[in-house]
Write a structure and sequence with these properties.
mainly alpha; 2 domains; five-stranded mixed sheet; 5 strands
Length: 438
Amino acid sequence: MTKSLKFGIISVFLFQLVVCASFGLAHDEAYYWLFSKNLSWGYFDHPPFVASVIALFSFLPHHEFSVRIGFVLLQAGSLFFLLKLVDKKFWMNAFLLFFSFPLASYSGLLALPDMPLLFMSACYFYFLREFLAGKRASVWILGVVIALLLYAKYHGILLIFFTLASCPRLVLRKDFWVVTLVSVILFLPHVWWQYLNNFPTLRYHFLERPSSSFDVMRILDYLGTQLLLSGLICGPIIWWQLKNLRPQDSFQRVLVFVSWGIPLFFLVSTFSKRVEANWTISLVIPLTILLSGREVWERKWAKGILLTSFFIVFLARIAFLFPNLPLKRIAEFHGWKEWASVIQEKCGSTKILANSYQIASKLSYYLNREVSALNYKSRKNQFDFWKWDISGEVCYITDKAEFQGEEILTPEGKSLKIVKHLTGENLMLVKIESNTRN
């Protein structure tokens, strides 16, 4: 490893550590922090990997850094396994490409399931290569890795599907079935949790999640977003080079199938539903492995574009530190600690109840106390499974017109009401009646 590469890696991760400790939690981060306080084999929204990572560092002081440090380390681990899959002479290109992908770059700053998925994707490809090469020790490890991949995020199943699509003869190998058995056994606790709870995640995504009519703009938005997420301004080079790449062995064939298969799968999904941009984060690993050694990066113009992409993405991290920037969702990270203190002052010692899981999670974290969510006229979430006590007198934070109370604005500018001294029993009746009508 060259001195410049060592310097670059150390600089990036030191900067990551500083930045991740310097701004507030997003709504979902606070929600997953609550997961970590209530560990389980499953949750309504996600499998338990994200909760476990946060819980590992719960011994640290109550601070955003403690919530996020595990994800910075997973990002470093992702880069480690990625470099193990790339020829040493192309390590600098791989480093620059990895941090030019906005999802790979910023996911290490946030306590979200995306970084566990990226890390386990890197592990998956590393041990898959060992398995394809016939190394016996990789058989058991790959089984464990596949189980952890699915525990990270359900989207990991796409890596397995496109692996088998590219190499269907794998099913003829005896050790393939050993891998399958190990991964299935290790994943059974989560399947059992789903069964006990009537498969809530599958029901939500496939039956309850709203579909919409065909929309060309939604498809174009998806394609444009994926182009930007593929290395920012490097995106066109990335996909053009991939188009011209011909796999040299079975491992490269898997990488190519995954690189085309995942974006095409979600492209089809956009025909009827909205697709989140971060769902394709696994692409970072196969694209970097395949393209870091391409001759195009030896050309000055291409190298210049790569370096420009890297520095734009790297320096853009500072946007997280400025609450007044006119950027979408930037207010989600600032001002919530002070806002929660205002809620505490207005509610006093009365039990606090919020309507949405986002507000309940933020208040739970910044007040460091249990704040439940009623979920009245909102989508299902994990609070529907947590049977927290909301009996007796409550101070209710809501955005619903049915309730009258003192108006208060969130840091995002959303109008809420503080309805003081209601009874939890009556509120539960409102929720039950609403659900009955629906």
